[in-house]
From TrEMBL:
Keywords: Signal. This is Cupin domain-containing protein. Residues 84-141 form the Cupin type-2 domain. InterPro entries: Cupin_2, QDO-like, RmlC-like_jellyroll, RmlC_Cupin_sf. The lineage of its organism: Bacteria, Pseudomonadati, Bacteroidota, Chitinophagia, Chitinophagales.
Length: 191
């Protein structure tokens, strides 16, 4: 057998041999704590809530790190009416489960009125947004699956990264985190 053929065969065998070990390592890293975990009401998974938007507090319940990027779940407590711009996620489905208060949630061309106990699903690549409506505090559980880079994006906003950015720079920041602006926030008549 020629030396070059022997070296190629050795490289192929090494790669094949490493596959089970790489898979085991990845699965072990993903499972983390085999007992699972509990995040109490009004608490954050890491013990530190964030505020990416004025009048809004996010409590991470399941971090992307917990699921090897499989999902990101957070509770949003909102005082201020309104919500984010109309946007599209490239590779992430999103859902909203209302815990308290009332929200308008637009997915594609349909706008739903959602109250406590209601869930709305928004598939990836479909424009969507939502808005808290009415007075008082409202709470909604939001999930991204897979997690994408949304958790990182919200942390950056909470740290003030976008505070002095131009709209073009904000658009680039969004795209770098897997989504883009496609329209304005929901408009509605305040009661």
């Amino acid at each position: 057998m020629k030396r070059s053929t022997f070296l190629k065969l050795g490289a192929v065998m090494g790669a094949l041999f490493s596959i089970p070990f790489n898979l085991i390592a990845k699965l072990s890293a993903r499972s983390g704590d085999e007992k699972g975990f509990k995040v109490e009401a009004g608490k954050d998974r890491a013990g530190k809530s964030i505020s990416p938007f004025e009048g809004d507090v996010f409590y991470t319940k399941v971090s992307a790190k917990d699921t090897d990027g499989g999902m990101f779940v957070f509770e949003s407590t909102r005082i201020k009416e309104g919500g984010p711009i109309l946007h599209t996620h490239y590779e992430t489905d999103e859902w909203w489960y209302v815990l308290q208060g009332e929200f308008l949630i637009r997915v594609g061309e349909t706008t739903y009125t959602a109250k406590a106990g209601d869930l709305v699903f928004g598939p990836r690549m479909v424009p969507h947004t939502f808005a808290k409506i009415g007075k008082g505090e409202a709470r909604v559980m939001i999930a991204h699956q897979p997690a994408g880079k949304m958790e990182e994006y919200f942390r950056k906003l909470s740290e003030g990264v976008a505070r002095n950015m131009t709209e073009e720079e904000r658009n680039e920041l969004r795209k770098a985190h897997g989504f883009e602006k496609v329209g304005p926030p929901i408009t509605y008549l305040k009661q």
